[in-house]
Design brief:
Strand content: 5-15%
Number of domains: 1
Strand order of the largest sheet: 3-4-5
Shape: globular
Radius of gyration: 19 Å
CATH class: Mainly Alpha
Distance between the termini: 23 Å
Mean pLDDT: 96
Number of helices: 12
Low-confidence stretches: none
Length: 358
């Protein structure tokens, strides 16, 4: 069955129910009014409390919001507010940690949730945006650090930070961040976004980390698309078009399917890029066809490669491959991998829904 002939909203709903049934739990399994994403299924025994994967919870919150926007229901809305509250509780009463990329992701999810995040929204956004401003220095020509007290500035911190502050109306700051990424991290040979740069004590660039990660493309694309809508300067649209072309030609395979990055944090990488490809397809007319093509090619591959376990899909860490039955030590047991697949289904559903209403 062709991707255009299926109901992607239905498939997103199936993915939603599978992930929540397996992973969404009360803190410690017992604390009333709390909701948090269990990081492995099947659960590892014994289960270590740390690291607790703060930024995975931010993407779980974003996926919950996708589901609520696709099909609003009261219990989903209450789940969004509960997860937002619980992140702070689980994080020792703070919205912040050392990592600027982590807090930018949570800020984006809470910002997008708006009133659905309940009373958590204003305090989270105030703390996070203040901290992001503190992360900018002129070393290496600008940009935010990856984490506090480090020598590394990278795309994964600067991309979501730029999207967040642009949506907050801080267009000048967002433009400065995104220009820095474009001027510093674009690979001259491929046109893709490299990981980051190491900064020497005197503020000069000591080394470029040349690794090409899928989600670096997604977050820079998202920043360019956001600024194209808010600033209107042609460079944002031009950069978005060039980047999608580079992803198609240099990163995706001949079938249009993005590479996976294993489990752990890498399980989220391709799903994040799918989210911002869908955003680009809907907001940049020149990208409606190519960005949509990428989203649907990946969604079709991931769905075909799923395993049906305990009444629901398990997505493969490599979307073009068949998923094995998840067990401890396999990437498919990680919440991140399953969130990436769910996020992809929501991106396809959003595009299909928009196309039907045109």
């Amino acid at each position: 069955m062709a991707a255009a002939d299926v109901d992607w909203s239905e498939r997103a709903g199936i993915a939603e129910r599978a992930v929540l049934r397996r992973h969404l739990r009360r803190v410690g399994g017992v604390v009333p009014g709390t909701r948090i994403g269990r990081v492995h299924w099947p659960r590892r025994v014994p289960s270590a409390p740390f690291p607790w994967h703060y930024w995975w919870q931010a993407h779980l919150l974003d996926c919950l919001l996708d589901a609520q926007l696709r099909r609003p229901e009261r219990h989903k809305a209450s789940g969004i507010a509960a997860l937002a509250r619980t992140v702070r509780l689980r994080n020792a009463g703070s919205w912040l940690n050392r990592y600027y990329d982590d807090i930018a992701w949570l800020g984006l999810a809470v910002q997008r949730a708006g009133t659905l995040a309940g009373r958590s929204g204003p305090s989270a956004l105030a703390a996070i945006t203040t901290r992001l401003h503190e992360g900018w220095t002129e070393g290496g020509g600008g940009g935010l650090w990856w984490r506090r007290d480090d020598d590394f500035k990278n795309a994964p911190a600067n991309g979501p930070a730029a999207i967040l502050v642009a949506r907050d109306g801080q267009v000048g700051f967002a433009a400065a961040i995104t220009d820095w990424v474009a001027e510093t991290l674009v690979d001259p040979d491929s046109g893709l976004i490299r990981d980051g740069v190491r900064i020497a004590p005197d503020g000069t660039v000591r080394a470029v980390e040349p690794y090409i990660y899928t989600y670096c493309q997604g977050v820079h694309l998202g920043a360019c698309v956001e600024l194209a809508a808010r600033d209107g300067h042609q460079r944002w649209t031009d950069r978005a078009i060039s980047l999608v072309d580079a992803v198609m030609q240099r990163l995706a395979g001949p079938d249009g399917v993005l590479p996976g990055s294993g489990g752990g944090d890498g399980g989220l990488f391709a799903g994040i890029t799918a989210r911002y490809l869908a955003d680009a397809a809907l907001r940049v007319p020149e990208l409606a066809a190519p960005a949509s093509q990428l989203v649907f090619a990946n969604a079709d591959a991931a769905w075909k490669g799923r395993a049906e376990i305990a009444g629901g899909p398990v997505f493969s860490a490599e979307w073009r491959d068949l998923a094995p039955e998840p067990r401890a030590g396999l990437p498919e047991a990680d919440l991140s991998v399953q969130l990436g697949g769910w996020m992809l289904m929501e991106a396809a559903a959003r595009l299909q829904g928009a196309n039907r209403h045109r």
